[in-house]
Amino acid sequence: MSKDNVFAGKRRALVKRVGDKTEKIYCDDHPANQATFKCVKCGHLFCEECVGGEDEGKAYCVGCKGFYKQEEQKQLQAEKKRSRKASSGAKKAEFILAGLMICLILVLGNYVYQNSESPIAADTEVFTAEELAEDQQLLNTADRELAELDLEIEAMLQDENVAVELPGATNE
Questions:
Q1: For residue 161, is it within any domain?
Q2: Is residue 53, in this structure, part of any structural domain at all?
Q3: Which segments of the protein form a coiled coil according to its record (predicted)?
Q4: Is residue 99 part of a domain?
Q5: For the stretch 42-64, what's the b/e string if a residue is b when 16 or more beta carbons lie within 10 angstroms of its beta carbon?
Q6: Number of domains in the chain
Q7: Which DSSP helix (H) or strand (E) runs through 59?
Q8: Which entry of 57, 59, 123, 145 is 20 to 30 Å from 137 by CA?
Q9: pLDDT tens-digit profile of 28-60?
Q10: What pTM was computed for the model?
C-alpha cells in the first residue's frame, strides 16, 4: 500500500513556510486562518470557525460534532443510571437497617420480658376460688344489711315527722 492511498481519505492541514523558515499550519477549510485546534476524535487541525464543540479543553471539528453530542448524551445517561443505582442502593440499605432495628427491639423486649418479674403480679396475692366466694358472700350480706338499715331510717323519719336540719341550711 502506498503513502498516497493511506492519506487519500483524510484531510490534512496546510503547512506554509514563512520567510524566516518557520512553518505555520493553516486550516484546510479556511486557508487564510491559522489552525489553533486539533480534533480529539479524528486528529484534524482546524481554526476557531470550524470548532464544532468543546468539552473540558478538548475540541471537536464540525464533522465530529455528532460524535461529541452522542458521547455527551452517553455520559449523562451513565451518570443518571449511576445516581439511580446509588439511590436505590441507599433505599435498600435504609430498609435493611430499619428491619434490623425492629428485630433488635423485638429481641431486647422479649429478653426484658422473660428475665424480669412481672410488675403486676409481683405485689399481689393469689386467692383461691373458695376465698373469693367467701368474700363475695360477706359483701352481699353487708349490702343487704345496709339496705335494711336505710329502709328503717326512712320509716322512722316518716313516722315521727322529724325535720332534719342540714348543716348550713337556714329556715325561712
A1: no
A2: yes
A3: 132-159
A4: no
A5: eebbbbeebbbbeeeeebbbeeb
A6: 2
A7: strand 58-61
A8: 123
A9: 777 788 878 888 778 778 788 877 666 667 777
A10: 0.31
